[in-house]
Amino acid sequence: MTLAAEHQPESDTESPTNDNDRITSGSLAGRGMFAIVGASFVIGALSWLPSGSINWARWVIVTLLVYVAGTYAVARIVESPRQATDRLATAIVTSAFALVLLPLISVVWTVVDKGSNRFDWQFYSETMRGVVGEGGGAYHGIVGTLIITGLTTLFAVPFGLFTAIYLVEYGGNGRFARAVTGLVDVMTGIPSIVAGLFAYALFVLIDGPGHRSGLAGAIALTLLMTPVVVRASEEMLRLVPNELREASYALGVPKWKTIAKIVLPTAIAGILTGVVLAIARVIGETAPLLVTAGLAQGTNWNPLDGRMTTLPVYTYQAYKFPTLPPSASIDRAWAAALTLVIIVAVLFTTARILSSILKPQGLK
């Protein structure tokens, strides 16, 4: 009887001594969070008033610190300690995201703002042949960028995709597959200038010293782009469920046909995204193209012979060695940078559209 009395449950009329220990003691969502965010901005703005000038860095840092501390403090009062800890973690993650996003927004805004000074038809229809001061354009740079990047994609995508297929579908855990994986890891960290010197040395052996061509630039960029394609494609292929492969094998479908008809269509969305990321990785390279493709004042449509200008080299040349007046060269450099951003944005949009079109039915 005594043992039963000791284990008898407590009366339902008893309540916790501290209401804040309950999971649902209050709610900070909605207007409460908006009030905290607004107060954080105001306090951040007040931090630069004593200096008399706007200090954006101080404003952002003070705002984020007040937001994190204020969210936790108010959540401790209104809600429970458990909810306050959850709010604190959410505030830290949100602040970190905002802190990373701000430089990106600043860069894009600066490029658009300064590049719009020469965002006109003349810039996209004329070259720099015979231009000394104002005027001129980057038509030859756009042509060179599209040709060299297109050749690089033509070389790197098949090599990278086939390598990824071998590593995932055939290599397994073999010694050769591990060696290829290690080599890909090493190639991922190769400095771009080393790739340019390698391509230059290769064409010097073939054509002699002083060789400059778009093909040499494409070979240099291929060394940089291929490992990115391999890594991205390999990860996407590994995400394809093995059940799909096993079902295809059970129906008597050969392995190569399973890869072509089942595995690749299933992973095509991620592969296209990885290819576009790889293109974005190399389309802005300058050092290897200075060594291999050089700089030209006119348009060169032949990638096998002669110097070929690209937008990164054009930007570097205009910014580093401005003509008179210097403002004209600086405007051309910013406009070329804006053109590069637009090309990458168009590539990403095209990849997303193709991913939606080529994705197999039934996959989300």
Describe it for me?
This protein has two domains: 19-115, no CATH class; 124-358, MetI-like fold, CATH 1.10.3720.10. It contains 14 helices and no strands. It has helices at residues 2-6, 31-46, 56-78, 81-115, 121-125, 139-171, 175-188, 192-207, 214-238, 242-250, 255-283, 287-292, 311-320, 326-358. α9 (214-238) crosses α11. The protein is flat.
Q: Any idea of the CATH topology of the largest domain? A: MetI-like fold
Tell me what the CATH architecture of the largest domain is: Orthogonal Bundle
Find the CATH superfamily of the largest domain: MetI-like
Give the number of helices: 14
By oligomeric state, this entry counts as single chain
Report the count of strand segments. Answer: 0
- Output the structural class: mainly alpha
Q: How much of the residues is beta strand, in percent?
A: under 5%
CATH class of the largest domain: Mainly Alpha
Low-confidence regions:
1-25
Task: Compute the separation of the termini in Å.
Answer: 62 Å
The description of the largest β-sheet is: none
User: Secondary-structure element sequence?
Assistant: HHHHHHHHHHHHHH
Give the count of structural domains: 2
Shape summary: flat
Q: Over all CA atoms, what is the radius of gyration? A: 29 Å
